Amino acid sequence: MHVHSHALHCVISLLLFPILGISANPGEKVVETTATALKPININDFEAGIGVYRRATEDFSHLDPNTQAQLIYGRPGNDGQLLLANMTLYAPDGLQVVMMERFEPLTSAVDCKGDDGEMSLTFKSQDVFDYAIKTWSFINEAQDERFLLIANHDGCGPDDERQPYL
């Protein structure tokens, strides 16, 4: 299974700007704000951290393309606080989205290190592979059919960024 990354360039990252003593009164000193970069948090890890656990059975539905995807970003804040952003991504022009971090537990290997802009996936079982082929086969039915796969995997894009593949 190969997915290309060269057809779309987009970086999904967030900056959080805390407001520090900003005043609208003339003559008052204004404290400048600083940006805090939030990093991607794997949704499966996030849910496990807050006590949400999936059933022990393999859930192939995470391979299904959807019209939207949930993206969690965060980082440690001051005084033990945690800064979090929970985003819903709606892909443009009816493009469907698959979040690799959701189905990654169904894979045994992911290779994004080639110079060809392709990703190779190896699934843990023939059943998962067959489901992926059946679910993603619509991209072979017409030349303009495609979906957006968003990777949050080491080596599949710049560090601390999600990487889209089309």
Describe the structure.
By secondary structure, the protein is of the alpha+beta class. The protein contains three helices and ten strands, in the order E-E-E-H-E-E-E-H-E-E-H-E-E. It has helices spanning 43-49, 100-103, 126-136, and strands at residues 2-4, 14-16, 36-41, 68-76, 82-90, 96-99, 107-111, 118-123, 147-151, 163-165. The strands form three sheets. A four-stranded antiparallel β-sheet has the order 2-3-4-5. The protein is globular. The protein starts with a strand and ends with a strand. The model is unreliable at 2-24 (pLDDT under 50).
Itemize the secondary structure elements and their pairings.
Blueprint (H helix, E strand, L loop, with lengths): L1 E3 L9 E3 L19 E6 L1 H7 L18 E9 L5 E9 L5 E4 H4 L3 E5 L6 E6 L2 H11 L10 E5 L11 E3 L1
Parallel strand pairs: 6-9
Antiparallel strand pairs: 1-8, 2-3, 3-4, 4-5, 7-8, 9-10
